Amino acid sequence: MPPPTRHERGRLGESLAAAALIARGYMLIERNWRCASGEIDLVMREGGELVFVEVRSTWDDAGRALESITAAKAIRLSALADAYLSAHGLDGAPFRIDVAAVCRRTGAVEVMRDAIVSGW
Fold this sequence. Notes:
Strand order of the largest sheet: 1-2-3-4-5
Shape: globular
Structural class: alpha+beta
Number of helices: 3
CATH architecture: 3-Layer(aba) Sandwich
Helix content: 25-40%
Distance between the termini: 43 Å
Order of helices and strands: HEEEHHEE
Strand content: 35-45%
Number of strands: 5
Number of domains: 1
């Protein structure tokens, strides 16, 4: 049996992250929202706040996944959040950007709230 593709590993990481966040009280709104400039892995709600979640996964080290967010990626995620809000008529709505780091070997999910400040 061939090893899973990058896409399959990404989908597994997103599924593990979504399940962990739902268990923590988040509500899933949308997966893999796309626009011309990119994709938001998970759009969720926690309380009255929209939460855009970037999922990073590795086989063995969730901490390394968190460290993989570059300045360029943070800027792009902030722009994608703004694009989502605009596309859904939600300009000015409260939101934050979290990063969920998934260890696929153990299924552990580490979440960094407010990992990316909008307008970074």
